[in-house]
Predict the structure of EAL domain-containing protein.
Amino acid sequence: MSDDFLLSDIIRDERICTFFQPIVSLKTGEIFAYEALTRGIRDESRSLIDPCALFAQADRETCSLEFDLLCRKKALENFRKFHTNTEAMMFMNINTSVISSRDNETHHIGTISRQMGFDPENIGLELIESKASSPDELMSFVRKYRDSGFLIVIDDFGCEHSNIDRLIQIHPDIIKVDRSIISCIENDPYRQSILKSIHSLAEMTGSLCLAEGVETLAEIKTCHLLGVDLFQGFAIACPSPDIPRLEEATRTQVRILQGEIHTASMDALRRRRRLTGDINVLADWLIRQIDPTNPESLTLVFQEFIAMNDEVECVYLLDSRGVQISETIVSPFVRLQSRPSIFQPARRGADHAYKPYFACFEALGIQRYLTDVYLSLASGNLCRTFSVQLPCQSDAPCVLCMDFLEEPIRTPSAPKQS
C-alpha cells in the first residue's frame, strides 16, 4: 500500500472525526456557516490522517462512495450536538465524482439530514463541478437538491478546470473563490481584476461571493474592498472539532477584523471622494491654460499637465461631433510600459462620438462626466475618463478628455500656478 492504513478498515470502524471551520460575514459580523472537514484516525496512535491521503486511498481501494457517505453521516452527527445553539449553517463537501443515477447516495443526503433534525435550508452542499463524472447527472443532482431546499455551493472556483458555462447552468447560491486567486491579492492587479469579475458574475446571477483560504489581514482588506461577501481561512480561524470554543474565538476575531476593515473602507471612500474632487480641480486648472481655438498650441500645455500628474495617462480634445482634434498626449509611464500592439493611443481624426464620455452630454444634458472603470485601448490599463465641455470655435462646444489611471488609485495633487 502507498500508506500505512486501509481505508476499508477505517470505514468499517468509522474511525473518522470532523473538524469545523467557520465562514463569516464581515459586513454583518455573524458566523454564516461552518464547513465540515474530515480527518481519519489511526487505530494505534490515534493520530490524524490528512484528508488528501484519505481521498487518494479511497480512489485506490475503489470505495469513494462508501467513504463519502460516512463523511456526511459523521459531519451531521457532530454538528447536530451544536446545531440548536447556533443560527449558522453547515457546509459539507460532496464528492461529485461518485454522483450517479445508479446509486442511492443522492437520496441519502435528504434522508439522513431530516433524520438528524436538520432542515435542508440549514445545509450547504459544496460541489467541485470539474470532478463530476457526468455533467448531466451533476445537473440532475443540483436540481433535485435545490428544489428540496439545500443551498448549492461551487467550491474551488478559479482552480484548474473551472467552467463558467457550467457555473451559469448550476446557478449556485455561493461561489467559493479558490485560494490560488486570493493568495497575495493585495499586490496583484491581475488577481484583483479576476476577483472583481467573479464577484460581478456572482451578483448578476444572484450568488454570494466567498473568499476561501484567506491567511492575512491584507488579503481580507483587499477582498472586502472588492465586494466579497463571505470569508473563510486561517486569518479567521483554524479548523477545530470543538465548535463552542471555536465560535467564541471566531466572534472575537471577527470584531477585531471588522475594526480593521472599517478603517480601510473609510480610507478608501475618502480617497475616492478626494480623487473626484481633485479631478475637478485639475480640470479647472487645465481649462485655464488652454486655448481651444488653437489646437496646435495644446501639445505643450498637455505635456506640462501630464508631467505634473502621474495619475493622468492621456489628455486629448474632441470637437462638437466627437472627432479628435488634438493628438493624444500620453504619460511617459505609458510609453515605457510593455504592452501588446492592440493598445495604442487614438490619433487626431479618431471618432469618439459613441464613447460614454462624449455621448453623455447629449444623453444627460450635463457639462462634466466621470466614466465607470474600463480598459483603456490607449494603455491596456484600467482607467476612468473625465470629460468637460468648453467653448470652442464658432461657439460650438468641444470636449476636453483626461484618462485617469484606476489601478492603483492614488490621489493626484493639483499643479501650482506660477
Residues 408-418 have pLDDT under 50 and may be disordered.
